[in-house]
Amino acid sequence: MASRHIETWNQCLGVIKDNTSEESFDTWFRPIKPISLENDVLTIQVPSQFFYEWLEDKYIDLLKKTIKKVIGPFGKLEYSVLMDSSDKSVTIKMPSSDYVETKNPLGRPHSEIPSDAPINPFIIPGLKKLQIDPQLNENYTFDNFIEGDCNRVARQGGLEVAKNPGKTAFNPLLIYSSTGLGKTHLCHAIGLEVKRLHPEKTVLYVQAEQFINQYVTASRDKNLNNFVHFYQMIDVLIIDDIQFLAKKTMTQEAFFHIFNYLHQNNKQLVITSDKLPADLQDMEKRLLSRFIWGLTAELQMPDINTRLAILKHKLYTNGIVLSDEVVDYLATNIRTNVRELEGVLISLVAQASLNKKTITLDLAKQTIDRFIRSYVKEVSVEYIINIVCDYFNIPVDNLSLNTRKHQVVQTRQVAMYMAKKYSNASLASIGKQCGNKDHATVHHACKTVSDRLDTDKQFKRMLDDIEKKILG
């Protein structure tokens, strides 16, 4: 014969099933186990804190009405929440109908709660702070992240976030750029600075691909609740390369709930992407809308002064001495990204060391000449614009004119198309340099040119000529 608490819960399930969808019932109520029934208080066991919070948020009214109907007017509900995958659990009481006005899932009488203390429905008695590896690279600090016009907004935004995580308007902080411009460095710098200023905070840096793999494992092991619960315990969550979540519908769903929970509880989110949120494909709109709630900052190609500062800092920290003319040559000719700039410097120093040669300007030219021919012209939107405008015999300033003249419109569209194809700049950056247009205009221009290439042979020959001039 079934125990009284099991029979009572089965009666409750009968009521709940009639008032929920089959999918919701199977997901949120079948996993619950009745534990005991004493003094009209039914205790049920739920798999995780996240599970408990979801029930409290989505089904509180249904549960209260069901308990009153099955047990009686004095019926109450108590949760036993399993923490991690151990046998230990923490008990949380759902508010009785006497406390409808103020949600108090801790189940304590109002007299026990200081009148000036805010009630936090997500705090569970006995819950211990997680001790986890933040996965931060100690070498990527703000001290060696050289500031320039190309990254000032992102760097300053990162510093503000590190000083007051979750308490600024920069939540989330979304940093986007092409590869090699410092997104990952800045992420680690933010995390390290938070740990320095707020050692009590739980910080976690995770690459999106790692997050996806963890989700797949948790799903396979039927451990998704613990997966979500783990991430909801983080104070500062840093997700690198969020674009890899594209087409991962279920992973996006899990991240959506994690994002909401952290944001609502004033936890800090830092996200990086290779594109503006509006340009990310195959991502849920509700996620994209949340990505722009805070500060969206672009890391652009470093200008000559920033490249010089980066090189000089690298030389100083590594004890390398180069002549000013060699440093100037490197900074002037390597314009792809910071990673390539550092890579060429390392290669040059290694070659000189192995061959026991002095690093002269001639050696520098020999070492990077091939690299320059391959890449230098690919990344400069300004260079591409000058080539295209010269080809069509249109002054560069005319791209900013608000005109529908075919020659100007065509020149601007071709410049946008070529800049997208041969540079690492974002659509927003290209639009800004091509007449101060937005990313949507660039996207439309690229599609227009691409469609025309398929049908207009003369136009295709013209663009082939322009490409040859761009690539030298």
- What gross morphology would you assign? elongated
Count up the domains.
4
What's the total count of β strands?
Answer: 9
SS-based class: alpha/beta
- The share of residues in helices is 40-55%
Q: Give the name of the CATH architecture of the largest domain.
A: 3-Layer(aba) Sandwich
CATH class term of the largest domain: Alpha Beta
Discrete helix count: 19
> Which strand-content bin applies to the residues?
5-15%
Q: Give the low-pLDDT segments.
A: 84-89, 94-130
Order of strands in the sheet with the most strands?
A: 6-7-8-5-9
Rounded to an integer, what's the Rg over CA atoms?
29 Å
Question: What is the CA-CA span between the terminal residues?
Answer: 87 Å
One letter per element, helices H and strands E, the order comes to HHEEHHEEHEHEHHEHEHEHHHHHHHHH
Mean of pLDDT: 81
Biggest pleated-sheet summary: 5 strands, parallel
Seen as an oligomer or otherwise, the chain set is single chain
Q: What is the CATH homology-level superfamily of the largest domain?
A: P-loop containing nucleotide triphosphate hydrolases
CATH fold description of the largest domain: Rossmann fold
Q: Would you give an account of this structure?
A:
By secondary structure, this protein is α/β, with parallel strands linked by helices. It folds into four domains: 4-108, GMP Synthetase, Chain A, domain 3; 152-298, Rossmann fold, CATH 3.40.50; 304-376, Helicase, Ruva Protein, domain 3 (Orthogonal Bundle), CATH 1.10.8; 381-471, Chromosomal Replication Initiator Protein Dnaa, Chain: A. Helices cover 51% and strands 10% of the residues. It contains 19 helices and nine strands. The strands form two sheets. A five-stranded parallel beta sheet has the order 6-7-8-5-9, with helices on both faces. Strands 1-2-3-4 form a four-stranded mixed beta sheet. Strand 3 and strand 4 (89-93) form a beta hairpin. Helix 13 runs antiparallel to helix 14 (361-375). It is elongated. The termini are far apart. Mean pLDDT is 81; it is low at 84-89 and 94-130.
